[in-house]
Amino acid sequence: MEIRTLCEILTRLEARFRKPDLLRYKSQGAWRDISTDEFAATVRSLALGLESLGVRRGDRVAILSENRPEWTAFDHAVLNLGAVVVPIYPTLLTDQVRYILDNSQSRALVVSTGAQMEKVLPVVGSLPELQKVVILDPPAGAPPSRAVPWSAVLRDGEAAHRADPRRFESARAAVAPGDLASILYTSGTTGDPKGVMLTHQNFASNVNATLQIIPFSDQDVTLSFLPLTHVFERMVEFAYLAAGATIAFAESIEAVPQNIQEIRPTVVASVPRLFEKVNARILDTVRASPLVRRLIFGLALKVGRRQAHALLARRRAPLPVRLLHPVTDHLVFSKVREKLGGRLRFFISGGAPLSAEIAEFFYAAGIRILEGYGLTETSPVIAVNTLEETRLGTVGPVVPGVEVKLAGDGEILVRGPNVMKGYFRSEEATREAIRDGWFHTGDIGHLDEGGFLKITDRKKEVLKTSGGKMVAPQPIENLLKTDRFISQAVLIGDRRNFISALIVPDPALLVSYAERKQIPYKNVEELTKNPRVLDLFRRRVEAKMAGLPPFQTVKKFRLLSRELTQEAGELTPTLKVKRRVIEQKFAALIESMYTE
To answer: Any idea which architecture 462-595 has in CATH?
Structure first.
């Protein structure tokens, strides 16, 4: 049965998926369970408690918190009340938080900790619309002005339910598919963030389409670690709950490897960066192994790739592969799968392009990755590979109910029930994005003969050299990052006479190489300027560029001594590169490549 509004997820859970471990979280070293009944009661109490604080239908309620069960509970409480959820990344700075609270005209704010509260306190006085701040983990002492602990909201909600047992059902029954559900602020790679207005129908249509083609079930267990603020993780969580799956919340990004071992998930949503790191660490371990183990790994990888290609082509593998695969897979890749919990059915990859080489490696290891594509404005899924239909290097077929066509310049245009209502308080931006009923994604791509969508680059990020050649940076950056020594890469070359790159080396591998080659150094920065290190990277870059047209090849590069980070303003919260910021910050270094 399809859902019409996000409120129906809770209805569906109570009717079909009453389980003791709907949500899981770790506290004081042990995993704790939250049942369906507990979750539903908490959502009801929070909704009525927020109403007692003055939150009404259509009001905006912001959530500034890390992933945790309370995030999900408040999300559904606000939605069932008919109010609007405004997620805010917990990593944002005070000025960025203030901008979102002000632009969204949020009436209430939920913060996770005292540290997040401290971030908000300096600007509360300048936000007249903001009436209350709810704290999940209140610090000791008297709460600041306008602040209440979430336990008080729960108590008020429970009292309201006792006084009027039908109040909650009346509120949720009044929510219609066309009602605004959430305002999500884009990453702001090209300016101030825009508030994307998504309705209940937008999200519900995407959940329904996803469940038609991705086999989530009430037997699934997933580990949540991507920010719920991001539309990808949020919609996937809606789909998990609609299917009755158990969601375990990771303690932190750093704890993910350990939590995976403990939870043993069957399905995990991630971004390509995780797969890149896992792939690099496995290959590093192999290179440090004795010759016999390296030879066995090489054979297992070769056999695994041929087995994967046969699987994807829906044909039988050659006899030698069928005979060798059970042996080599057991010797090598069964251990890799065990590190991922031992019962993983598939990964879902989104948020950024996944290298076909990385995807092929995981398929060879018997680990399926379903890569998809979408934007905040499309709720988000436009296309996704499935267990039945997968082509590496593509983002899969277009999901049911969504239409895609290509403009003359290759821009991907989308139409369907998943397309946003518009940008909040920005009619001009809305008119520019949605023309003649089609949303203009700003992404360049094409559909192959089988209807699989392939993304080639962002329209606004395509580099145009001084010779008039157009170069899409992302595919080349992804190609560079498949080298184990390269952690990050940013292509430069717009209005320049050739393509260059800023490259961030993998610091651990760089130090290991220096010690192995007896290169003296005081710190990593010194290593990035060492002639022998530069020669190593020159050779590795040239190897990756082999076969590319001359105008697309990286002619020069500079090594950076540290990772590009969100904290430094170089990456968005979803880890996308802010090209303008980087070009400004490293202007002198970039200029040196074109003047020497």
So the answer is: 2-Layer Sandwich (3.30)
Q: Which span out of 452-456, 494-498, 577-581 was modeled with the highest average pLDDT? A: 452-456
Distance CA 155, CA 492 (A): 56
| Phi, psi dihedrals of residue 94, rounded to the nearest 5° | -55, -50
Crossing angle between the packed helical segments 114-124 and 94-104, to the nearest 10 degrees: 60
Which pTM does this prediction carry? 0.87
Whether 348 and 233 have beta carbons less than 8 Å apart is answered as no
Q: Which residues contact 231 (CB under 8 A, 6 or more apart)?
A: 184, 196, 198, 374, 376, 379, 380
- Tens of pLDDT, residue by residue over 565-588, are 888 889 887 778 888 899 999 999
Is the Cβ–Cβ distance between 275 and 348 less than 8 Å? no
Q: Is the distance from CB of 157 to CB of 46 less than 8 angstroms?
A: yes
Task: Give the mean pLDDT of 290-302.
Answer: 96
Considering only CA atoms, which of 105, 115, 122 is closest in space to residue 136?
115
How far is the CA of 506 from the CAs of 284, 428, 477, 488, 503, in angstroms? 11, 43, 15, 8, 10
Distance of alpha carbon 504 from alpha carbon 273, whole angstroms:
14
Please give the CATH architecture assigned to the domain spanning 7-202: 3-Layer(aba) Sandwich (3.40)
The Cα 307–Cα 328 span in angstroms is: 11
Domain ranges (residues) in the chain = 7-202, 462-595
Mean pLDDT, range 438-443, rounded to an integer: 95
Query: Hey, do 7-202 and 462-595 end up sharing a CATH topology, with the first three levels equal?
Result: no
DSSP 263: H
Q: Whole-angstrom Cα distance, residue 328 to residue 302?
A: 10
Task: Supply the DSSP symbol for 276.
Answer: H
DSSP for residue 332: I
Map residue 20 onto helix, strand or coil: coil
H or E element that contains 232: helix 231-243
Where do the DSSP E strands lie in 543-590? 554-559
Mean pLDDT along residues 342-351: 95
Quote the CA–CA distance of 447 and 382 in Å, as a whole number.
13
Name the average pLDDT for the chain.
93
